[in-house]
Specification:
Blueprint (H helix, E strand, L loop, with lengths): L7 E5 L7 H8 L10 E6 L1 H9 L15 E3 L13 H19 L5 E3 L5 H6 L7 H9 L5 E7 L6 E6 L9 H4 L2 H17 L7 E5 L14 H16 L4 E6 L1 H4 L1 H8 L9 E4 L2 H12 L4 E5 L4 E5 L16 H21 L1
Parallel strand pairs: 1-2, 1-4, 2-3, 4-11, 6-9, 7-8, 7-9
Antiparallel strand pairs: 5-6, 5-10, 10-11
Length: 343
């Protein structure tokens, strides 16, 4: 690959009191990543230096002195493993800088390390998560959280989109509407076509209630609007095989088989779950260390590892960097696809 055409990516270190600094230094020890993209780390150099200097296994981390980074100094003290207002303010400032510089054209994508919503709130930032900040600053109203993972056993790729995300379970039925699901389905179809080259994909969509309502005996959402909605979308997208609503307790049988057994029949190209845990419990069960969260609908690429700050193990050298590495690799792939589309 021509070095001058490599994607330019911003990599934030996330909450400095969490495992973000550790997984960044561990992931970037893999020098093959340097051959695939221009990575600029956005965070506090003092945090990365302390993470490296206090590590009992320096050989598993990249020395921060060799990093290309934008240093945003800490304002306040932090304690490793204990998120607070200072760590929340710091992680928000890293993300804010990355987004604004990407919008200016200085980066083609952003890879974000984990943040703590509680730390953000302590610092006065009342957002459900990084996704909503990205969408707000990018000026988009239609966006979604897509989780992507490639099975090391079979090579099959799991793609799961959430219709609703960080809201209480009690609010899910009211939040789910044909208009919302239309936005998410359109985004998913565009993403599959434009980012993954799947022009005639098979998409499986979950029901809301047990047994998808069992003909109205266990909830009415499927009968009242979900089944008619899906039928209308089949008319709009005749080239797409739209399956559903699939009972939630059987939706994940084929993906599980496709993930672990190369002899099983092909599963769907993508899955649309109606609420957070309906989609993320199976994703994390199959691919906890490999899954990547990518925000679709943005004018630039954004990926993130599918795990949190893990304050309980911060500073102990136990954090696994594989999900972050996969997030970087996916950001490279998606950036290349988008660049080709523009040329």
């Amino acid at each position: 690959m021509n070095h001058s055409t490599l994607p330019r990516l911003a990599l934030t270190i996330g909450d400095p009191a969490g495992i973000g600094p550790e997984i960044v230094l561990k992931a970037l020890l893999d020098h093959t990543l340097k051959a695939l993209c221009h990575l600029s780390v956005i965070g506090s150099r003092s945090v990365l230096l302390k993470t490296y200097e206090t590590s009992h296994r320096k050989e598993s981390m990249l020395n921060p002195d060799s990093l290309s980074m934008i240093d945003i100094p800490l304002k306040g003290s932090i304690t490793l493993g204990q998120g607070n207002a200072a760590s929340g303010a710091a992680s928000f400032s890293y993300l804010d800088y990355a987004i604004k510089e990407t919008i200016k054209g200085n980066f083609e994508g952003i890879v974000t390390s984990p943040i703590s919503k509680l730390s953000w709130q302590a610092a006065g930032y009342n957002y459900p998560g990084q996704t909503e900040v990205l969408a707000e600053l990018a000026g988009v109203e239609r966006f979604g959280m897509l989780f992507v993972a490639k099975s090391p056993q079979t090579g099959w790729i799991l793609r799961t989109l959430l219709a609703t995300t960080h809201i209480p379970l009690s609010e899910v039925p009211a939040a789910l509407t044909p208009d919302l699901l239309k936005i998410k389905l359109d985004l998913l179809i565009d993403c599959l076509k434009n980012d993954f080259g799947l022009h005639t994909p098979q998409i499986a969509i979950a029901g809301l209630n047990p047994h998808s309502g069992e003909g109205g005996k266990i909830g009415l959402e499927e009968q009242n609007w979900l089944i008619p909605f899906l039928e209308s979308q089949r008319q709009i997208y005749p080239e797409i095989e739209i399956i559903g609503p699939v009972p939630p307790d059987t939706l994940w049988v084929k993906p599980g088989q496709a993930w672990f057994n190369p002899q099983t029949p092909k599963a769907a190209d993508a899955y649309l779950a109606l609420y957070h845990d309906q989609g993320l419990i199976p994703v994390k069960l199959m691919a906890f260390d490999l899954a990547v969260n990518t925000t679709i609908g943005l004018p630039f690429v954004r990926t993130s590892p599918d795990h949190g700050t893990a304050f309980d193990i911060a500073g102990q050298g136990l954090a696994q960097e594989e999900s972050l590495k996969q997030a970087i690799l996916l950001a490279v792939q998606l950036s290349q696809v988008r660049k080709k589309a523009l040329n």
